[in-house]
Amino acid sequence: MRRWWWGGVCLLWTSLLAAHEVPVGDRGFILEHPGALLGPFVYLGAKHMVTGADHLLYLLGVIFWLYRARDVALYVTLFAVGHSLTLLAGTHAGLAIEAHLVDAVIGASVAYKAAENLGWLERWWSHPPNPRLMTLGFGLIHGLGLATRLADFSLEPASRLPNPIAFNAGVEVGQLLGLGVMLLVMTSWRRAPAFARHARGANLVLPLAGLLLAAGQLSDSLRVELT
């Protein structure tokens, strides 16, 4: 059992560290076909979100204790508005940000959300931050992470608006797909008698995953600076 647990942690760490990497084949195709490529960028955005373990883990933390559809819609919308704003603004402005540092903060956002779910924030602060504002704020940071990936494509001025918009549309499609799967699983799991017993343990995995991501990205950032 212990070997299986550590194997799962290693697999999770590997997937988290690769969460923001753009596949070489995708990057090569875009670089070989400059200009407005709406279809391919919608595909890239959806693929990036569906395979982006960090984004999905944060979303899982957001919806974990949300039972009403309107609450899920509110928080997911806040997150989507946040990452859409910084994705589009950051790409259009050509912001040059150290990708590993942004990804480290994204990892920290997963750990923060888990701490909130576990009730730790109330122990640390007498007045914890508003969860809605934090969801919007972390959405802004996740959007910066998405913008750093688009920076790899060296978009031409003429395509600096349509391609990011298409990419963002794909991100939203991928987010809805991932959210749909998570809601189906969570709805089924909540009906199980063991849910209350295992829910806390599941939330303890989230800060571990977030801290693993943050540590790995900070290590990569330090290695880049030293080289």
Description:
- By secondary structure, this protein is an all-alpha fold.
- The protein has one domain (about 1-225).
- Helices cover about 80% and strands about 0% of the residues.
- The protein contains 10 helices and no strands.
- The chain has helices spanning about 1-15, 25-30, 40-50, 55-65, 70-95, 100-115, 120-125, 130-150, 160-190, 195-225.
- Helix 4 packs parallel to helix 6 and helix 4 (about 55-65) runs antiparallel to helix 10 (about 195-225).
- The longest helix has about 30 residues, at about 195-225.
- It is globular, with a radius of gyration of 18 Å.
- Mean pLDDT is about 80; it is low at about 1-10.
The parts where pLDDT drops under 50 for at least 5 residues are 1-11
Provide the structure class: mainly alpha
Summed over residues and divided by their number, the pLDDT gives a mean of 81
Elements, N to C (H/E) = HHHHHHHHHH
Number of discrete helical segments: 10
Distance between the termini: 40 Å
Rounded to the nearest angstrom, the radius of gyration is 18 Å
What characteristic shape results from the CA principal axes?
Answer: globular
How many β-strand stretches?
0
Major sheet details: none
Number of domains: 1
Q: What fraction of residues sit in β-strands?
A: under 5%
Helicity level: over 70%
